[in-house]
Amino acid sequence: MDRLITKEKVFVQTNQLAEILINSNGYGDFHDNIVKNNIVCEESKNYEIAGAGFIDFNQHLYEDINHMNSISSGLYLDMTLVMFKIYIWGSKGEGFEIFRHVLRGEEIANIKSIDDIKEYIFKGLSELEDGVVATYNKEMKEAFEEFGKGIESRQLPLPNILKHISIENNINDFR
Question: For the whole prediction, is pTM greater than 0.70?
Fold first, then answer.
């Protein structure tokens, strides 16, 4: 089966927060290292740690070459928590967060390199693709065409799609 999402398409853009994450063994260590590096992070703001860019699809469905559907994701510092998030984007550029996982301390401790970050993000996106293909029960191209139609109409069977992602959508555990 052809894949839309491959490791080669996941480009991870990192910053100083990513380096601090890699060198941390959990939340206490991560927050201490932020302070040691004189980085100011306000609790009420969202900071990108490692963005994975956009994976575009359905360009063939639109007359304007700038219109397409996209998926983006990454690791973010949000409310002092490290989160893996997935967004979907409509053809006119409107984005929606569809998945959020708060990393636990042991998950942070297991991230030791940029490649580990890329692998973490790739795994979540690959499982999202598995969910799209399984939900629409079609080949990859046709499944993503249906997924794109759902994005545009804002009528997606998200529970069916997201159940294929092995890490839990656990933000409610932290509210």
Answer: yes
CA separation, residue 166 to residues 23, 109, 125, 133, 161 (Å): 25, 19, 11, 16, 12
pLDDT exceeds cutoff 70 at 175? no
Chain-centre distance for alpha carbon 35: 26
Residues 87 and 56: beta-carbon distance below 8 Å:
no
State how far the alpha carbon of 135 is from the alpha carbons of 5, 46, 143, 161, in Å.
16, 32, 8, 6
Per-residue pLDDT at 65: 63
Per-residue model confidence as pLDDT tens digits over 7-50: 988 889 999 999 999 999 999 999 999 999 999 888 889 999 99
C-alpha dihedral sign at 153, 155, 156, 158: positive
Burial class (CB in 10 A: 0-12, 13-18, 19+), 130: middle
pLDDT tens-place string over residues 51-86: 998 988 887 777 776 678 899 999 999 988 999 999
Rounded CA-CA distance 34/41 in Å is 8
Per DSSP (E only), the strands in 58-168 are 69-78, 81-89, 95-102
Which helix (H) or strand (E) segment holds residue 109: the answer is: helix 105-110
Can you tell me whether residue 90 is helix, strand or coil? coil
